[in-house]
């Protein structure tokens, strides 16, 4: 835990189904910070669902949107941000998170994540092999960005938000 890094902008990073939004909401409440879900902000701002954006414009278009919406947050204070699992795919987003956010990686077992996302319409939740390989491919990037790492296969979102809250 980097005690010196400012914590007025907290980003939860990690794969689909790692519980970023659930833990983020609980944490924001405890800290009395504003909770922001980047995926939801994009959907609201664009007036389209994420599957629709992927289908109509493709993944790289979506990655540019992520960068645009993330950029708008870099001067905000007292926020907890739940990022999308693919935020580390673009170097621009990676650098912005590194420079402006305290990043908490919710790691865990990708098989758990796959099960948890069963009834969702995530465009990159294809087969379980694809999903698990994608997690392996991204894991180093999440790690490189992390200021704190918590295992969401072991802890519940409530416990995760408590641990972070008391660490601070
Ligand atoms: C994605 C994860 C999703 C969403 C989009 C792409 C990814 O967010 O941003 O479907 O590339 O892993 P969650 O991590 O909230 O599922």
From TrEMBL:
Q: Which residues bind Mg(2+)?
A: 21
User: Where does it reside?
Assistant: Cytoplasm
Q: So where does substrate get bound?
A: 39, 63, 85, 138
Residues the record lists as binding ATP: 17-22, 122
Identify the domain of life. Answer: Bacteria
Question: What is annotated about its quaternary structure and interactions?
Answer: Monomer.
Similarity comment: Belongs to the shikimate kinase family.
> What is the recorded function of this protein according to its Swiss-Prot or TrEMBL entry?
Catalyzes the specific phosphorylation of the 3-hydroxyl group of shikimic acid using ATP as a cosubstrate.
Output this protein's name.
Shikimate kinase
Native species of this protein? Thermotomaculum hydrothermale
Q: Which gene specifies this protein's sequence?
A: aroE-aroK
């Amino acid at each position: 835990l980097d005690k010196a890094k400012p914590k007025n902008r907290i980003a939860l990073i990690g794969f689909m189904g790692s519980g970023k939004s659930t833990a983020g909401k609980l944490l924001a409440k405890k800290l009395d910070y504003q909770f922001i879900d980047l995926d939801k902000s994009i959907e609201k701002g664009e007036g389209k669902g994420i599957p629709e954006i992927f289908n109509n414009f493709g993944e790289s278009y979506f990655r540019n949107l992520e960068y645009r919406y993330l950029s708008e947050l870099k001067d905000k204070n007292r926020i907890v941000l739940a990022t999308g699992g693919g935020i580390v795919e673009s170097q621009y987003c990676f650098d912005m998170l590194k420079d402006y956010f305290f990043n908490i990686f919710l790691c865990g077992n990708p098989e758990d994540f796959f099960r948890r996302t069963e009834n969702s319409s995530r465009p990159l939740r294809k087969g379980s092999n694809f999903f698990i390989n994608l997690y392996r491919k991204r894991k180093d990037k999440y790690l490189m960005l992390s200021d704190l790492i918590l295992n969401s296969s072991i802890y519940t979102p409530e416990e995760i938000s408590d641990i972070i809250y008391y660490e601070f």
